[in-house]
Structures are given as C-alpha cells and as structure tokens.
Amino acid sequence: MDKLQVVGGKRLEGEIVISGAKNAALPILCAGLLTSGDLELSNVPRLHDVKTILKLLAQTGLTVSQDDERVTLNGSAITTLEAPYELVKTMRASILVLGPLLARFGEAKVSLPGGCAIGSRPVDQHIKGLRALGAEITIEGGYIYAKCKKLKGARIRTDMITVTGTENLLMAATLAEGETVLENAAREPEVTDLANLLVAMGAKIEGIGTDRLVIQGVAELHGARHAVISDRIEAATFLCAVAATGGDILLKNTRTDYFDVALDKLREIGLVMTMGPASIRAQMGGRPKPVSFRTTEYPGFPTDMQAQFMAVNTIASGASRITETIFENRFMHVQEMNRLGASIQTEGNTAHVKGVDRLVGAPVMATDLRASASLVIAAMAAQGTTIIDRIYHLDRGYDRMEVKLSAVGANIVRIK
Questions:
Q1: Res 99: pLDDT
Q2: What pLDDT shows up at residue 74?
C-alpha cells in the first residue's frame, strides 16, 4: 500500500495546472449510457475513481477509448444493464448509472454504493424520484432493481438537496415522456456542467444553475463534444497549501466564479490573490489568520474544503470554530492532525481549533479523500518528516498531487 513521505518547511513557488473536476467527470461519463452516438470528452482527470467508473461502464458494453485526458464513449452496443458490487463498493458515484440505464433501456440492476466512510449518504431520494417517474423499484440482496417500460414526466421535490440525486434524476428525465420538474435541485457547478452536456446531446432543460430544473423529455439523445470544467476543490486545496506554507504560486486552467465563498475565506486568512481569465496567482508571506465557517450546500462553504481549511487553522494566529452540517462523520482527520501537534477539540458537529506555533512531523493515516489532502497540507507546514498512510483515498480525487506539489518546491515523495 502506497504512502507519502513529506518533509515540511518548504515554500511553494511556481505553476500548477488544475485538472478536470472529479465530481463533474463522473456523472458526465455516465451520460454516455444515454446515447448510441459518440461522446467525446476532454479535460477528464486521471483519477482512480475515473478508472473505476470507466471499468464499470465498459462492462455494460459501452465502448471506451482513452487517450490521456481525452475519453470517447460509444453506447451503441450495450448488453449488460447491471452495476455489480465488485465495482460499486468503493465509489458512491456508481449509483449514477441507475437513471441512464433505466431511462434508455427500461431496467437496471445496481448495487447499493460504497465510498468514503464520512457519514450516511442514502440513495432514498434517487429512488423516490425514479418512482415518481413511474419506475418499479425493489431492493433485495444489496441491489437496487428498477424497471419501467417508459418513464413519464413528473414533478419531483427532494426532501433534501442531493447532488448525485439531482444528477441521476436529471439524466433520467431527459428521456422521459413529457415534462419533469425537479425542485430543490442541487446548484453545484458540476451539476450545471452535466446539464450543459445534456443540452449539447439534444436534451431540453430550463433553469440550469438554479434549484428548479424543467426538463422536456425527448425520444433520444445524440453524441456530443464537451470539455469537463476544472476542479474547484483541487484549486482551493492548493490555495490552502500555499496559505499554510507561504510562497507564490500560479494556478492555471481554473475559474474563480464558482468558489467565491472559499476564496473570500482565503482572503481572510491573509492569502493575496490576483485573478486572471483562467488563472489565480496566490501569494502568502506571514502566518495565517484564523477563519471560522459553517459548511452548507452550494453556493455556501463546501464540505469538501472543510478539512483543508482546518489544516491551515491549526497554525493560525488565534482560535477558530468549524461547524460541519453536511456529513455527520467528517471529523475523522482531527485525531490525525492532533498527532502532528495541532490543538483541536470536537463537540458534536463543531470543531474548536486553537492555532499552535508549529506542527511536528509524525506518522498519520488518511481516513477519507479530503482528509488525505488536509494531512498533506498539515505535513507541508510541519517541521520534520511526516509519513501519510492509506493514500489510496487521495488517488480517488487528486490527479498526481505529489507530482504537482514537488514541481513547485514541496518535499514530497510516494513510497511504494
């Protein structure tokens, strides 16, 4: 099992190219099931989760052709309408094949999903919405069985805001008969990216970017070309890294219009940023200032950045308060940061962080995807050497993080 060895105390200087967004790429790849035409995608990140979803899609009979960050899909010869447990157990996004398979072929068998152990992420809203569209769904032996001769448009209001739920129902509704209205829809940029792709494939969708999506079903979708948006979470993670270590980096292939809240908090920390058309230059000279925040649905502070900001707060010049409202078990990185000398106490869904003068390297263990990134940031800010175990979590969502950080001055190597 691979580990990362990080020697802290190095300033970051140079350029980093941001990869395509994992959380946009996964549903977009699943959209290949909706058409018999070619789906030509670019800016697809090279991640373990992407490999897993492509393997899952290929076993259905979808033709997959990959050349670096370009992927071409063709769904003209799909024969298997099943997502088996062996491929689904490590990644919750696998549930995103359910809507497309059901909408196009009238049936699907999908294993209940797995993923990071950061809390309960039920699929009940997916099932509720598909039933409203006319599907007959049963759950037996760890699998979701769905059937319907033809989905019918409906008005669906989810009980909670769910990103993958919105994406699944959106894809299913594109091929349903009549009009579907999705209310309380997620507004994340990754949802918008999927919707824009579906429109390019011939779907009729109104309200893109809002919490009310109106879809007029069409008989079929066709192929299209699409570039996956850049990863706002990866970009913000690297900005947290320079805030914690000091330095001057230029992020390329990024946008600034869809993570304003995180950028505002980074400015409070003391990070100086200069925005370009597709770039961010970040400079940090002194000790970070503490920032308090509360995670919430987009456009609020993203839960996927909670751990990384906590890492910066551990060495800030004061105390901060972090409240996690999305996942009930997303503080598993706290005990690992405390092993590095951080002063963090948790009380329910709130963490109280008292900034310390220094962190000191130690062996730590990654517990989930974003926790992995936060430990890399803390390790780079610490004195001495840190060994981070179980970094397979990191590889699920960051495209060669250690390579990108090494190129800008970090002392970080992968130990096989």
A1: 98
A2: 98
Measured CA to CA, the distance from residue 241 to residue 311 in angstroms comes to 9
CA-based radius of gyration for the chain: 21
Burial 66-102 (b: 16+ CB within 10 A, else e): eeebebbbbbeebeebbbeeebbbbbbbbbbbbbbbb
Contacts of 306 (CB under 8 A, 6+ apart): 293, 295, 322, 324, 330, 370
Catalytic residue among 30, 116, 148, 240: 116
User: How many helices (H) does the chain have, and how many strands (E)?
Assistant: 14, 24
Q: Judge contact between 373 and 239, C-beta under 8 A.
A: no
> Residue 279 corresponds to which tokens in the numbers above?
């770039």
What's the pLDDT score for residue 330? 81
Helix, strand, coil abundance in the chain, percent, nearest 5: 35, 30, 40
pLDDT at position 349: 94
Q: Give me the amino acid identity at 309.
A: F
The helix (H) or strand (E) run that includes residue 50 is helix 48-59
Q: Of 43, 15, 22, whose CA–CA distance to 405 is shortest?
A: 15
Cis peptide before 122 (omega within 30 of 0): no
Which of left, alpha, beta for 348 (phi over 0: left; psi -120 to 50: alpha)?
left
User: Which regions in the chain score pLDDT beneath 70?
Assistant: 114-121
pLDDT score of 114: 59
- Which residues, 6 or more positions from 65, have their beta carbon under 8 angstroms from its beta carbon? 71, 72, 73
In the sheet that 63-67 helps form, which strands lie side by side, from edge to edge? Answer: 63-67, 70-74, 38-42, 224-227
- 116 belongs to the catalytic site: yes
User: How do residues 120-148 score in pLDDT, each as one tens digit?
Assistant: 457 889 999 999 999 999 999 889 999 99
pTM tops 0.90:
yes
324 by Cβ neighbours in 10 Å (0-12 / 13-18 / 19+) ranks as: buried
